[in-house]
């Protein structure tokens, strides 16, 4: 490459070259360049593309003015490989097209979109290695950034590299990424940079202070690069990039390369001190000095230098002021454009009495360039300086002209930009602009971009004559995202705005109801129960009073205040309205089941609701929850929003697809979903939470996932799907803790603790108990605390029978004191029956595990009476159930009984396979291709190939046909279809 040497960046260039080389060999990764404005981040990214001439280079750049547009950065990134979309499976094609089309069509979901993007990049990498370049990641729209982060965490072992640049430590764009933190240039490198511009400088004593080499690498193993690091150090000392790497600077920074300024040592020191070695600031200030516009003698003077961003913005503003007035007006229109597309800019210029030729002086000075129908600024700070340096009136006029230029342009993207320009063109309340922006917000929500939707609703509230409704909608978006603090702040703003409004009391009710939904899992249940009950008593609207009463009942149940819950449940039934009746009956029926008595009000008794639900769903009976929302999905959604890595405890959980249609109303009260599921879990009847889970996944509605996942874990544990249940419970606990919802992690960890106890896994139980103890404290008689006591007693069944009996009896007495009569709520009776060698109760739990335990006890009695055939008929199926569940203690008891019958142990199914290997085996064994398996499990085809290689080695086979034969002999816990 010709151009200017990248002085002082030898280490960074070497790290980039190492990443490119590794990616070319099939071992990609992530590299993040971090530095202040003007540090040279974009120059390094441009240099990287020169190292990868054989790569498919995909670029996108965050633009501050486009941060509100959902998936705008992602659409730019994927445009060069969009033709490969047709080769993806149908679900992935739909996810990409529905989300990247700004038309507002229903989203396929944020997780399906993220996995589809990964599949598209993987497809492109089959042709040649792929380099993904993301500049100004701090300005990338949130929806795109979430997907980029998801992909970044899955690049190991692929020929795909991600190189991103950002200003600070946020946003996170990858896990365990090598970070290159750009510091100011040392004196030698700074002098070399200025020499390229024809400016000669002498180094004084003060300049030596900047020669220190900073540590640029973090989270990287550099042992294997010692020789390259040494070479980079030598290059740094010489002021050169490694091997003299060169990069063409932006046009605005070029010069004739003829000496036209000489800096004395003290002048250079002042320049270096003032700029703190920032390359762009050095260049711009030196150019101003060369032109006579800046006197270096006036610099510093002992004061603290300005931050480079502020300093550069001031320099750019000073340069723009010297341009002709018409050029400055034209630059403002270009700076206010969201996309920089020349066509709408030209139309707006025409409306303002200007033309594209008015931009010519700015092009000649290198401030902007017009190429490929797009106006580009030399640096984002220049654009910002122009926009924020204009008067409010000039900015409004500019947005008005740009809105008019897009008014007749077809297409959803143009409509979205038009609405935003309208919102910035108004000086006061504008109901038309507010309505247009609210439509944009609704479309963003449908596309699975609640962050963009919230931003649009908030802006609509600023310009709406009556902002309250828009603030409430923004709060709902924040709650759906899982940002409870922002949701409460928006509700506070709505309440404050309502005090000065003449709007009916219905909005007061909406605010209260929404606040209760935010608080339900975050606040002490006892206080929340009291607050909601009191609010219900004074609510002027019957529907709102009914809604608050249902929420108060739910809070009472979550807090184990069952007697208060019973009273509130009766009130909820009496106050039920058409919109609250389903939720009221759901919580009342659940409570009646626990207490073993009817809870009735003026409406029908709660216990009769079972028939109501049955008739309402008779057309589509709920199937057993054998293909529910996958654990990996829930964790991946958490990654999308929170930037978290997958917890080690559930890394190998199988990811199963969702095929159920999502409910249209994501705002359905959780009480209507949770309590029927909980009731079904206790009754051991089928219940389908998949649609609600899918809707929450697809919208990125993190706040709904902890309770839904906890209930799904209950269903799966009681249905005998322990691996999936455990994974779901851990995902619920992780999400709940991250989102500040302490109640659900307690209950979720209790599910996992029960599984650990039944499996005899003391290490896992101790880990779960530690996590439980680290959560905010709960009463000792809370169901989650009782569940841990029960699990601990189960682990002691063979170690200290007397202690186990005492502990189990204590749990049973506490449940009895609460009035809880249902035997499956915490199944202590089954353990006591075994320990005391007594027959099980008729109403004991009927799930696979407890059914097998009853068969084991019955078989023992049959053997003692010498009914060997009947005993064997019970023992072998029971043993197989225990083996499948991993309940080794009870499996061993079955084997002991079989041995007493004179029967040898039978061979077990293959051991040593990870859950992911098992899932891949079942899908491939069922005849699916690698691509179909990858789509079903939300992993890449390359990962499928990796698991297949391990499977072939472990099973000693060589073909898919042999694998199919083996899989056909396995005891199936779940059907992969």
Largest sheet: 5 strands, parallel
Which structural class is indicated by helix and strand composition?
Answer: mainly alpha
Work out the helicity level: 55-70%
Beta-strand content bin:
under 5%
Q: What is the mean pLDDT?
A: 75
Number of DSSP E strands: 11
Low-confidence stretches: 205-259, 300-304, 600-635, 641-665, 971-977
* Order of strands in the sheet with most strands: 3-4-5-2-6
Query: Judging from the principal axes of the Cα atoms, what is the shape?
Result: globular
Distance between the termini: 54 Å
Note the total helix count: 44
Radius of gyration: 33 Å
Brief synopsis:
This protein has 44 helices and eleven strands. The protein is mostly helical and 977 residues long.
Overall description:
- The chain has 977 residues and is mainly α.
- 58% of the residues lie in helices and 5% in strands.
- The protein contains 44 helices and eleven strands.
- The strands form four sheets. A five-stranded parallel sheet has the order 3-4-5-2-6, with helices on both faces. A two-stranded antiparallel sheet has the order 1-8.
- Strand 4, helix 6 and strand 5 form a beta-alpha-beta unit.
- The longest helix has 18 residues.
- It is globular and about 110 Å long.
Annotation keywords:
44 helices, 5-stranded parallel sheet, 58% helix, single chain, mainly alpha, disordered C terminus, 977 residues
